[in-house]
Amino acid sequence: MPEFFGKTFDNLPQSLNKDLRDLEQEGCMYAQFWNDDLEKFAFCRIQFKPSEIVKYVDSLKGYDEFLEYVSKGYDKYEAVEMVSDDRVKRTAKDYAQWVQDNGHPQDPYCPAAFYLDHLESLVCGTMEDRYEFIQETYSGDRHCLVELV
Q: What is the pLDDT of residues 16-41, one digit of tens each?
């Protein structure tokens, strides 16, 4: 049972657990986004502010609860209603409504649906001023990060 920031996360995909681990250990997470200078995708570090870390953890805890209820057989609409954090629940419901109103094909209850405030923009690649590009590719080996630092 993975635990980060004193909370357990039983239902998240491994990639989100990795992001939580990086946030807990380093205060940042890593992603690949388009880099205009290189004209291709590149690996970058996203440094979080302390308040963003709290909101991100709360957001993913709500998503983890949602996934638990879905795994128990509740439909997605019921499951989102059962999320304990009212802010996260309201954010997910608003996102799902926006997806429906705008005819977007994505899952209305993807992880981004649960992100509080501006975290979707930060995590999904639209806050370019917050990204520190560190190399073109990432092998998964943390030694390359040490060398870059």
A: 999 999 999 999 999 999 888 888 88
Which residues, other chains included, contact 57 with Cβ-Cβ below 8 Å and sequence gap of 6+? 4, 5, 7, 20, 23
Q: What is the DSSP letter of 28?
A: E
Phi, psi of 133 (to 5 degrees): -75, 130
Work out the burial of residue 28: count CB atoms within 10 Å of its CB; fewer than 13 is exposed, 13-18 middle, 19 or more buried: middle
This prediction's pTM: 0.86
Region for residue 115 given its phi and psi (left: phi exceeds 0; alpha: psi -120 to 50; beta: otherwise)? beta
pLDDT at 134: 86
- Residue 91: pLDDT band by 50, 70, 90 thresholds? very high
C-alpha triplet 42, 108, 99: angle, nearest 5°: 90
Dist. CA 47–CA 15, nearest whole Å: 17
Within its chain, how far is the Cα of 21 from the centroid?
12
